[in-house]
Amino acid sequence: MIVAIDGPAGSGKSTVAKIVAERLGFRYINTGAMYRAVAWKANNAGSLLKDELAIAQVAEELNIEFIPNPDGQKIIVDGVDVGSQLKSEEVGNGAATVASQPQVRKILTDLQRKMGQDGKIVMEGRDIGTQVFPNADKKFFFQADPEERGRRRYQELSTKGESVDLHEIIDQIRKRDLEDMNRSVAPLVQAEDALLVDTTHLGIEEAVVRVIELIGPEDAK
Ligand code: DC
Fold first, then answer.
1. Secondary structure class of 66 (helix, strand, coil)
2. Which residues line ligand 1 at a C-beta cut-off of 6 Å?
3. Considering only CA atoms, which residue is closest to atom 6 of ligand 1?
4. Where are the domains of the chain?
5. Which atom of ligand 1 lies nearest, measured to the CA of 92?
6. From CA 29, how far away is CA 33, in angstroms rounded?
7. CATH architecture for segment(s) 1-17+121-214
8. Which of 52, 79, 135, 193 is buried most, with the most CB atoms less than 10 Å from its CB?
9. If you measure from the C-alpha of residue 218 to the centroid of ligand 1, how many angstroms do you get, rounded to a whole number?
């Protein structure tokens, strides 16, 4: 059983995918973290993010492990626990740049297919149901209004003590959506057979319950 969850930033897909995987006893793979890890590694090595050959080399040599722990998951890149470093705005912007490079996408897509080949997996990203596992058993597409996604991001950053402007964040989200949807390789689109989950007015637990119901407890074996 392969569960594919796609959707834009702030739609709640990572939080929900992680909990769904835990309840089903499946592995959880956050593919955004893989693009982020490539950008992080390239930054550390001083490579230019636009240098496609150098970045493809970084992706080829990426050694990433997802290790479940009581707080959710540890992400280890080349033996280093990178956790919060991958979440920075700078790494996120770098990830968007490397994610537009076809060679990087091919390398990471191959790696994702390998990671999922034994099934019992919830894989989450932008192109899982369309490119990585077009034959996934269950596909979901998460969505939420940009204003609501902006509020979520605003809260996350405010909690960390960062001073941020809500309108600016909403504008950035709209801009990132356009970039993701208009990218020439693997644009963000809902797979035809994906079920739409709109989380604008849905709490985390409600979304988790809905996804598990739609998977069907009998199928999740
Ligand atoms: O979900 P995220 O913000 O961690 O993703 C980081 C970047 O990687 C974002 O620009 C979208 C891109 N991405 C992608 O192109 N394909 C995926 N399967 C996952 C993420």
1. strand
2. 9, 31-32, 35-36, 92, 95-96, 99, 125-127, 180
3. 32
4. 1-17+121-214, 27-118
5. 6
6. 9
7. 3-Layer(aba) Sandwich (3.40)
8. 52
9. 31
